[in-house]
Amino acid sequence: MTAPIATPSGITSDEFLAIGELLYRRTGIRLVPGKEALVMGRLDRRLRQLGMASYSEYLRFLRQPGHQDEVGRAIDLLTTNETYFFREEQHFDFLARVVAPAYRANRQFRLWSAASSSGEEAYTAAMVLAGALPDTAWEVVGSDVSSRMVQRAQRGIYPLAAAERIPAALLRKYCRKGRDEYDGMMAVASQLRAKVSFVHANLMDDLRRLGMFDVILLRNVMIYFDVEGRAALVPRLLEMLHPGGYLIVGLSETLNGISSRLRLVEPSVYQLPGGGRA
After folding, report:
1. Are 239 and 101 found together in one domain?
2. Is 93 tagged catalytic?
3. What is the extent of the structural domain holding 25?
4. By three-state DSSP, how is residue 256 classified?
5. How many angstroms separate the CA atoms of 11 and 44, rounded?
6. One of 14, 25, 30, 42 is an active-site residue; which one?
7. pTM higher than 0.85, yes or no?
């Protein structure tokens, strides 16, 4: 007879603070009071799988040597991953209407989806660039702190419901309806996936290894950082942005209060001066 699976007790304030501190140290994301239910919703099943009855027990487990994989799994579960195709469509319109037509550099155009989650943002940008830069070499790089999300993005397979936000012409050109075991799913076409790569990366780390970019999408991410975290992150991103390039944040976000050389072009769209661009 198997032992009953432990039922985790509710999270205490000390446990919540400790989990929040772990997440902050690793990712720069701040868990504010009021998110206790979110933490329990994300971690409860994992504690059950491990047969643990409290978050204190799980924290002790995470702190033991040799459990870095579990720390990574906890971060995967705690980080927010909401995304969808053509989210905040104004930014992709700006990419096609302003950025691509003005591009004159004699090199590959590069766009970074800096918190790419399950890949919808990166593939949306790729669909736009494929049409807007037909005679220019380009690539899209997606990165995310969650290795689980990176794996999903690399597959490029989504529920058919995800297609609802993709314009019909782009859907026909760049997506394929699944069959047999993939019934009810769709896949991003191979010719588009070939132009998009995904890497596991933490925005708190030195990411200059990814190279330089003409556009960096960092949308709906900085709302999870505190003031100090945002102030530290932006200068490091600018080191990876070509002069004349653009940093695009979420429509509900702003860089007000953060000292940088960026100038506001449109709401949530900032440009690094230089490079001879308009």
Report:
1. yes
2. no
3. 13-78
4. coil
5. 10
6. 42
7. yes
Q: Give the model confidence (pLDDT) of 119-135 as tens digits.
A: 999 999 999 999 999 99
Burial-class residue 96 by CB neighbours within 10 Å (0-12, 13-18, 19+): middle
Tell me which of 76, 110, 144, 193 is the catalytic residue.
144
State the Cα–Cα distance between residues 137 and 194, nearest whole angstrom.
Answer: 12
42 is known as an active-site residue? yes
Burial of 70 (0-12, 13-18, 19+ CB in 10 A): middle
Could you tell me which of 250, 251, 241, 236 has the C-alpha nearest to residue 203?
236
What is residue 1's predicted lDDT score, i.e. its pLDDT? Answer: 40
The backbone torsions φ and ψ at residue 127, rounded to the nearest 5 degrees and listed phi first, read -60, -40
Tell whether 18 and 115 lie within a shared domain.
no
Does residue 58 sit in the same domain as residue 131? no
> Coil, strand, or helix at residue 262?
coil
* Residue of 38, 122, 22 lying closest to 73 (CA atoms): 22
Please report whether residue 7 resides in a domain.
Answer: no
- Residue 121's CB is within 10 A of a number of other CB atoms, namely 28
